[in-house]
Every structure is written in C-alpha cells, then in structure tokens.
Design goal:
Blueprint (H helix, E strand, L loop, with lengths): L2 H30 L3 H30 L1
Length: about 70
C-alpha cells in the first residue's frame, strides 16, 4: 500500500473517531435533558459510524499485512 493511501485511511479513521465521540456526547446530553428522540437518533448515527470505523480499521490492518 502506498504511504499516501495509508495516511488517508488513517486520517479518515481518526476523524471518524472524533465524530463518533461528539455524537455519543451529544446523545448523552440529549438523554440528560429528556430529549429521547434526539438521543436515540444521535446514538444510532454514532453506532453506524462506529461500525464503519471498525471496518476501516480492518481494511487498514489487512492492507498493512500485504
């Protein structure tokens, strides 16, 4: 794998982790304020992005082994 590709994938992974953290924090804040629909939506989106980040991490590790 070219270094540029690896760097782009790692950068995307790091950015996704930051976004995921923000969404989970926002979800918890919404829950604390009894905004249950908002909390559910935010948590759902965070969960989806978390799955994508896990997949991206797997791709990166697989490509590094080649």
């Amino acid at each position: 794998m070219r270094p540029e590709t690896k760097n782009a994938l790692l950068s995307a992974y790091i950015q996704l982790q930051s976004i995921i953290d923000e969404l989970y924090i926002a979800s918890q804040n919404a829950l604390n304020n009894n905004h249950y629909e908002d909390a559910s939506l935010l948590e759902s989106r965070a969960d989806k992005l978390y799955e994508e980040a896990e997949n991206l991490e797997f791709v990166i590790s697989e490509l590094e082994e080649r």
